[in-house]
Amino acid sequence: MPRFYLPQLPSIGTEISLPETVFHHAVRVLRLRVGDTLAVFDGEGREGLVELRHVQKQQATGQLLSLVEHSRESPLSLHLVQGLCSAEKMDWIIEKAVELGVQSITPLLTEKSTLRIDGERALRKRQHWQDIMVSACGQCGRNQLPQLQPITRFSDWVAAPASGWLTANESSQANRILVLSPRATTRLSALQLIPTQTISLVVGPEGGLSPQEEAQLLAAPLRASGCLPEAIQLGPRILRTETAGLAVLAALQVSLGDC
């Protein structure tokens, strides 16, 4: 059954006018008709069923038949800090990271970032990524939309990396910041991680973080989190930016999560 994102779902029995994007996909692409049902979710943990009651050329309405709280969230608190890379790769990373259960994604502007956007273009790109996250949630069954942070400069993130996902009263022992680096000597498998820790994964763009950025990141505890970032590697093979972070997320879900 197709799933669609409808924020602020009303009470059961209420008639809903389908938004334009939902109408297009449900009626024009999938050819749903009066009496057909579609699954909906609100991005805040609830899902329900809508039965189409009226279908016209430009709009359709349906009745909300059911509404329940249903969580398919990972038990892990995972946060991806991804260096901005080419548009196609960034889209892929965001989609798959949502499917792998991250709670937030921070696009990071670094020295080697090939994607340089700001102002109005940055706002459009962020909306594009938000749409990808919605689509990924619809596909994988998540009812809770992850947070998408604004595009952040590396220096700003180092100064305040906890924005959106760490709180001031969390101890440094509860937070782990893992930095992927081909220069690291510690492997992911050597870390002693526990499921209750908040884990942030920092991945550079194509070409990785610069040596200066990496040194700055690893030099001292990050101010807002109080924990010292740890450089890790994934064995003797150097993975592409669109592979490395996703490989770590999958490994963490297998070893500590719900896979």
TrEMBL record:
It is an enzyme of class 2 (transferase). CDD domains: RsmE-like (cd18084). One of its GO terms (cellular component) is cytoplasm. Signal peptide: none annotated. One of its GO terms (molecular function) is rRNA (uridine-N3-)-methyltransferase activity. Specifically methylates the N3 position of the uracil ring of uridine 1498 (m3U1498) in 16S rRNA. Acts on the fully assembled 30S ribosomal subunit. GO terms for biological process: rRNA base methylation. It comes from the Bacteria. It catalyses: uridine(1498) in 16S rRNA + S-adenosyl-L-methionine = N(3)-methyluridine(1498) in 16S rRNA + S-adenosyl-L-homocysteine + H(+). It comes from Parvibium lacunae. Keywords: Cytoplasm, Methyltransferase, rRNA processing, S-adenosyl-L-methionine, Transferase. Residues 73-253 form the Ribosomal RNA small subunit methyltransferase E methyltransferase domain. Residues 19-64 form the Ribosomal RNA small subunit methyltransferase E PUA-like domain. Belongs to the RNA methyltransferase RsmE family. This is Ribosomal RNA small subunit methyltransferase E. Gene3D superfamilies: 3.40.1280.10, Hypothetical PUA domain-like, domain 1 (2.40.240.20). Its main location: cytoplasm. It is found in: Cytoplasm. Its EC number is 2.1.1.193.
